Amino acid sequence: MFSLAFQLPEGLTPNLELLLPEFIVAGTALGAILPELILPAGRRAAATAWTCFAGLVCAFIVVVAMGPSAELALAVKDGDLLVSGLRMDAFSVFCRALITGGGALLVLISMAFTNRLDRGHGEFYAILLFSLLGVMLVSGVSDLLSLFVCLELVTIMAYVLAAFRRNDLRSTEAGLKYLVVGAVSTALLLLGIGLIYGWTGSLSLDAISAKVWASAAEGAVPPGLLLLGTALLFCGLFFKVGGVPFHVWIPDVYQGAPSPVTAFLVTASKSAGVILLLRMAQALFVRPEIMDSTVHNPLAQQWVLILGVVACITLLFGVLGAMPQRGIKRMLAYSSIGHAGYLLMGLAAIAAEGGRGAASGQYGTEALLYYLMAYFVTSIVAFGVIIVVGAASNRVEGGAHGDRAYEGLWSRSPFLAVALCLALLSLAGVPPMSGFFAKFLILRATIDKGLYALAFIGAGAVVVSLYFYLLWIKSMYFKAPPPGAPSGADFKIPASTRVVLWAGMAAMVIMGVWMPPFYDWAHQAAASLTSLAGR
Amino acid sequence: MNPLLLTILIPAAATLALFFVDASAKRAIRSIATVATALLLVISIGMFVGFHAEPDTWTANAGAGDGAHGYKYGFEASWIEDMGLAFRLGVDGMGLAMVLLTALIIFAGVMVSYSVEKRVKEYYICLLALVTGVFGVFTSLDLFFYYFFYELAVIPMFLLIGVWGSTTRTVDQNYATMKLVLLLTAGAVMALVGLISVWSEVGTFNMVLIEEHEFSTAFQMAWFPVIFLGFAALVPMWPLHSWSPAGHAAAPAAVSMLHAGVLMKLGAFGILRIACTYFPEAATEYLPYLALLCCMNIVYGGLVAISQRDMKLIIGYSSSSHMGYVLLGVASATMIGVEGAVFLMFAHGIMTALTFALIGWFYDQTHTRMLDDLGGLMKVMPFAGTCFIIASMASAGLPGFANFASELMVIIGAWESNLWLAIPAILAIWGLVITGVYLLRAVKDAWFGEMPERWSKLRDQRTLAERTPFVMLTAVLLLFGFWPQPMVSMVEQGVKPLVTRLDAAKEQVGKAVKRVVPANDQPAREIRAVGEER
Predict the structure, then answer these.
(1) For B54-164, where are the alpha helices, taking DSSP H only?
(2) Which pLDDT score is estimated for A78?
(3) Residue B76 β-bridge partners
C-alpha cells in the first residue's frame, strides 16, 4: 500500500492509507458517469454496473487486507473540529467490509433493474456509490459534527434514489415523503447535538463519554438538558433504523422506491443508523476501563427504560403491521420495522449493562453486528428475487398482477422460489439459517442483562413474524399460479443475479450452521469498539 | 466414525444430495432416501445391540457423583468456545431408545411413501431434513444445538403438510399446518428463553456440565414452568394440544407417522432431559399439578376421540390421550413410573406409526377416512386389516404388547408415588376402557360389516416391499411386548440419574413420601417379571 502522509495543523501526521477504501469508492462513483458519456446506448448499463462492482470489490479487498489490526488513525486532539472526527478502528473495518461487500452484491442485483432503464445509469450508480461512501464514513465517526455530515451524505443521496423513477407517481411520492420526514428528524438531530454540546462543551464522543461518567461518579442526576439532547439525537437515528415513532415513512417509501433502492434502504442505509447508535451507546452508556467500579451510569439507567419501551413498540408494530400486507415490498417494510425492534433490543441490553456499572456492552454490540451481517445477506437475496419477479410481471402484464406474481412461484421458477423461501425463513429466524443465530445473540444479550420481559416479547414476536413469512411461503408453494401471471420463461434471471442468489443462499446456511468465523469477526469488531471507547 | 454423528450426517447429506438430483428421476430419489434410512436403522440397531453386549461400559463412565449420567458415543467439535458452545453428541439409554424409535419409523415412513407421486424430490428433501432435526435432538448434549435441531424438525412440517397433506370435510390442511408450526414454535421460543437463562446462570451450553450445576431454589421455581410449558406444547399437554389432532389428520401418511411417532416424543424427552433433570426441586413441587393436567389429557382426549368419525382424528386424539400416560409417568417421579413413561414413548410411537401407515394405505385408494363411508374392508385387504387390529389391540393395552407393559408400569408408578396420584392412576385405568371403546368401534365400522360396492377393487399389500414396513412395526410391538427386558434395562440406565435427583430433591424439600420400595431398580424387575409371564 502506498504511503500518503501530509502535514496537518499542529504537527499531526494521520495515516491517510486507512481512508484508501473511501478514496476508491469516491473515485469509482465519479468514474461511473463516464460510460454514459463515451459508450453507445446499448452498452452503458452493463459497463457502468461492472465498473461500480469492480470499484466496490477493490475497496472490499483493501478493507479486508487492513484486517482487524487497523487502529486509531485519524483520531486527533479533542476540540479540533476540522481534523478529529474519524476513527478507523477494527469496528469500522468490519463495518466497511460489510458495506463494500454488501454494496457490491447490491450492484449486481440492481442490474436486473437498470438494464431496463433508458438512461440515467450513470446517475443511479454514482448516487448509490456516494451513499455507500457515506455509510463507510459513518462507521468511523468519533465526533458529533462528522456524525452529522456523514449521515447527511447517506440520507440526501437516498432521497434522490427513492424518487429515481421520477415519472412514476409512487416513486415520486416515496421520495417526497422520505424527504419531509427525513428533514424533520435531521432538524431534531441537529438540535440534539446542540444541546449535548451545550452541556459537555465538546463535540468529541470521547469527551462526552468522560463528562457523562465524571458526572455519574459524583452521583449527580443527569441534567434534563443532557437527557433531552440525547433523546433528540436518538430520534434522528431512530429515523434511519425505523424505530417507532419515526417509522411512518418506511412502508410507503419501501413500496414506492425502485426495488434496488429499497434493498439499499433496508441494508446499507439502515446499517448507518445502527452503526451510529452503537457508537453513541458506547459513548453515553458504557465505559470499559471502570469495569470493576460500582459507579452506575444514571443516564444509561434512564435509557434502558426508554429503549426497552421503544424496542417493544417497534417490534410489535412491525410484526403486527406486516400480517395483513398483500404486497411483498410492503410486507418487508413492516418486517424491517420489526427487525429494527430487535436491533433496539440489543441496544437496550447495552444500556442495561452501563446502568449496572459493570460494562463493556460486548454482548449487545456483537449481537447487533452479527445481526447486521445476517440481515444484509438475507435482504439482498430477498430483493434479488423481488427485482427479477417485478421485472417479469412488468414485462408481461404491466405490473397488473404485481402482488399475486408470487402465487405458485414454485412451479414456474423453482430456483427463485427456493431462494425467497430460504430468505424468508432466515428473516423469521429459523435454524439453520443465519437469521436464527442473529436473533439468538440478541436474546442472549437481553436475557444475560436480566431484561426478561423484553426477551419474552422478542421471542413471541418470532412466532408472529413466522406467521406472515409462512403466508408468503404458502402462497409460493401451495397455490396454483394465477391466470395471466408471468410464466417460467418470462423470468429472465441475469447471470449476475443468479450468482448473488447462489452465493447468498450458501452464505445464509453457512452463517447459520458454521457460525464461528462470522461470530469471531463480529466479536473482534465489537471488542475493538468496546475497548476503545473512552480512550 | 462416531455412530451418532452418522445419524445426523447421513440424513443431512442425503438432503443435500437430493437438491442436485433431477426432479424427474423418481426412482433414484426414492433409492437415495431408502438407502439413507436403511443405514440409519442399521446403525441404531447396532448401537442397541452394543448396549446389551457390554452394558458395564455404559455405567462405568458415569463420572462425578450419584446423579451423573453415563453417556456413550460422545463426540465433541469445538464451535464457539468463549460462549461454551460446542457441537456435542452422546446418548444414554433413554436417548438410544428414542434414536431406535426414530430410525424404525423413518425407514417405514420412507417405504410407505413410495405411493407419493407429487413433487417427489421436495417431499424427500423435507422428510430427511425433518429427520436430521429429530436425530439431532435425541443425541445433542449441547443446549444450543438441542434447540437448533428441535426447531429444525418443526419447519419442514409446514411444507410437508401444506403441500402433500389432504383437506377433508373435517380438516383444512392450510389451517392445520399453520396452527401446528406456530404453536410448536411458540413453545420452542418460550423454552429458548429458559434455555438461555440457564446459560446465563451456568456459563456454558454443555448439558453434562449443566447437569452438575446446582441451581438455586428460586431460579428453579422461576424457570421450570417456562421450560416445561415450552416443551409441553409439543407433547402435547392439555390444553395446548389442539394443533396435534388437526396436524395428524391433514398430514400425509409418512408425516403422520413421524409426527405422532417421534415429534410428540421430542417434547416429553425435553421435559425429562432438561426441565426435570436440571430443576429437580421445582419438578417435585410442580409435578403433582401436572398430574391433574394428565387426567385431562387421558380422559378428555379419549372422550373426544369417541365422538370422531374421521379415522385419523380418532387416532390423533387417541395419541394425545396416550401422551397423558407418558406425562403421568413423568409426574409420578418414581423409578418405575418414569421408566414406564419412556418405554411407553417408544411403544406408542411404533403403534401409532403403524396405525397411520395403514390408514394412509387405504386412504390413498378410497380418498375418504370417514367411518360412515367405509366398511367391510377386511374382505379386500385382509393383511392390512390384520395389522390394524393388532395395532388397535396394542393401543387398547392388551397384554402381550409393549404398550401394555409400559402402561402398567406407569400406572403402578403413579399408584405408589403418593396419595395425590392415586386418583389419576385410577382414571388412567378407566382411560384404557375409553380407548377400547373408540378403537373397537373403528375396527368394527371400517373393517367389518357391510362393504360398499365401490371398495371391491381396493388393493391389499401384496409385494414384499409393500409389506415390509408393516411387518417390521408389528414385529417390534410384539417383540418388546413379550420381552420388554432389553428395552426396560436400557431405559433404566438413562432415567436412573434423573430419578435419583428427584428423590434427593424430595427429601431436601422435606416432602419425602414414605415408600414401600426404596428407589432402586427393584420395582422395575418386578414389572419385567409381569411382562415376561405373558
Answers:
(1) 56-60, 93-112, 120-139, 143-164
(2) 39
(3) B88
Residues 65-94, chain B, touching A (beta carbon < 8 A): 79-80, 82
Range A390-408 average pLDDT: 71
Closest chain B residue to A517, measured at CA: B80
pLDDT at A180 over 50: yes
DSSP B361-390: HHHHHHS--BTTT---GGGT-HHHHHHHHH
- Nearest residue in chain B measured CA to CA from A466: B182
- The answer to whether the CB of A375 falls within 8 A of the CB of A336 is no
Residues of chain B in contact with residue A448, where contact means CB-CB under 8 angstroms, are: 196, 200
Identify the band that residue A412 occupies on the pLDDT scale cut at 50, 70 and 90: confident
Q: Which of B211, B177, B148, B190 is nearest to B12 (CA)?
A: B148
Which residues of A lie closer than 8 Å to B, measured between beta carbons?
A: 425, 430-432, 436, 440, 443-444, 447-448, 452, 455-456, 459-460, 462-463, 466-467, 470, 473-474, 477-478, 515-516, 519, 523
First-residue to last-residue Cα distance in chain B: 40
8 A C-beta contact, residue B445 and residue B83? no
Please tell me the distance from the alpha carbon of residue A286 to that of residue A296, in angstroms, as a whole number: 10
Whether residue B225 lies within 8 A of chain A, CB to CB, comes out as: no
- What count of residues does chain B have? 534
Is pLDDT at B106 greater than 50 in this prediction?
yes
Please answer whether residues B97 and B58 qualify as being in contact, where contact means their C-beta atoms are separated by less than 8 angstroms.
no
What phi and psi, each to the nearest 5 degrees, are found at residue B88?
-115, 135
CB contacts, 8 Å: A360 with chain B: none
Residue B193 to residue A455, Cβ atoms within 8 A? yes
| Total residues belonging to chain A | 535
The model's confidence at residue A68, banded by pLDDT at 50, 70 and 90, is low
- What value does the mean pLDDT take over residues A252-256? 89
pLDDT (tens digit per residue) in B153-180: 888 889 888 888 888 777 888 888 898 9
The grid coordinates listed for B134 are 429429530
Sign of dihedral through CA atoms A165, A171, A175, A178? negative
Residue position matching grid coordinates 436440571? B278
Please say if the pLDDT value at position B450 is more than 70.
yes
DSSP structural state of residue A81: T
C-alpha B22/C-alpha B28 separation (Å) is: 9
Chain B interface mutation, best of A413, A439, A449, A463, highest count of B Cβ atoms under 10 Å: A463
**A523–B197 CB contact, under 8 Å:** no
Query: Cα separations (Å) of B433 from A173, A458, B428?
Result: 69, 45, 9
| ipTM > 0.95, yes or no | no
CB contact under 8 A, A519 and B163: no
Residue type, B531: G
Query: What is the least distance, in Å, from the CA of B178 to any CA of chain A?
Result: 7
Residue B521: predicted pLDDT: 45
Q: What is the CA radius of gyration of chain A?
A: 22
Domain definitions of chain B by residue range: 3-53+70-533
Task: Locate the chain A residue with the closest alpha carbon to B183.
Answer: A463
Cis peptide before B239 (omega within 30 of 0): yes
What DSSP assignment string belongs to A162-213?
Answer: HT-STTSHHHHHHHHHHHHHHHHHHHHHHHHHHHHHHHHS--BHHHHHHHHH
Segment A467-516, tens digit of pLDDT: 999 999 988 888 888 777 777 777 888 888 999 999 999 999 999 889 88
- Partner residue opposite B178 with nearest CB, options A462, A470, A516: A470
pLDDT of B92 higher than 90: no
Q: Which residue type is seen at A510?
A: I
B80 to A519: CB separation less than 8 angstroms, yes or no: yes
Segment B280-309 shows an average pLDDT of: 86
